[in-house]
Amino acid sequence: MRKYFGLFITLIAIIGIISPRKSEGQGNAIRFSGPFVPGELIVQFKSTASEADKARALGRVSGELLDDVLSRGNRPDNRGDLSLVRYQPDLTILTAINALKLDSAIEYVEPNWIYSHQAISNDTYYSGGNLWGMYGDASSPANQFGSQAAEAWGAGKTNCGTVYIGIIDEGYMYTHEDLAANAGTNRGEIAGNKRDDDGNGYIDDVYGWDFAGNNNTVFDGVDDDHGTHVAGTIGGIGGNGKGVAGVCWSVKLISAKFLGTNGGTTANAIKAVDYLTNLKTKQGINLVATNNSWGGGGFSQGLYDAIERANAAGILFNAAAGNGGTDGVGDNNDSVPSYPASYTNSNVIAVAAITSTGARSSFSNYGATSVDIGAPGSAIWSSVPRKSGGKVISAYASYSGTSMATPHVTGAAALYAALYPGSSAAQIKSAILGSAVPTGSLSGLTATGGRLNVSGF
User: Is 226 a catalytic residue?
Assistant: First the structure.
């Protein structure tokens, strides 16, 4: 059942795709290659723009400010406000963009792209070898094409308890029986006092923040299955006699939810990235990586800049390579970029998916220069919420997608950071890519030509 793939196609059908294309970068043209929110634009004002200047610029499109994506006062740089703007409904998006770009107060303008999950199936239960993605050559059970996490566990490498991982996705079920002990919290916030204790602009954001719903309820029930599945692969509790085990048996998971039932937007993705960066830089949590199992839309300078702010803070950005186009067959990201995996920030690790036989998953995107490494992504069992008797309970399911491959790599980043405290993002990335096992199905199709090897650290 192509649950999320179907959602993505539906969004394309409803909202539409327009052309032309332009290569990624700082240029003035906008690359239209995916669904976007009608009537909305992301506008970067120049640092010199006054309120009068901004009002004049918006007047060109009879526009109004909807939201501050990142205000000038909260920026670590000297740039102006990054804003979400609504424009006159009878204008085409290209007309509105071109009108705003003419104003001297504007640095750049872009669509508010819509993103969706990079998971494509919900397989039926099958017996034996359910966690093949965690197996190693000599583990029991064994699978040479697994991540080799089980061999790391055999060497006593299970505890990432000093490390935080940000899940930029749906919310995740932090009360799940296989996740509750690993639920990370914002230590600068006091639960339930209805105050913004840490001054980050969010009230009672103890377990993170829901940017789609603009509230602190980061788990909203059974629809948050994708985020919960991702969380279990990164940090499902091991050795507890229940369910699954993640790459890290002990780790701190914190949510930056921006995907809802209709996907998520660029504006909220930027907020999610910056939220987690702020937790590291202002609250001092040891956040080493974010997991980004989502994609869609074209190049966004605003999102690129947010990823670069995370880069400056030493945070890896692990991203799903993508699940192909409307045909469900993997595409070459070197030719047709898939964002956010195709961003060229040095902290990005783009992840392809492989099967239990070592083949590249048929749906998985690839790219000799734009995709870094492969990891288990087909028929991956992990934690999910389920409804039973009117209650949401802990459950497990098998999904496939580059969404499922990416958290294996994110878990590996957490494990390396725990084994080698103080490692930089560049060092962690180098260790992950440098230990990749050469794999025929990935040769010439990824930068490493290989698959994840968690035991290689």
Answer: yes
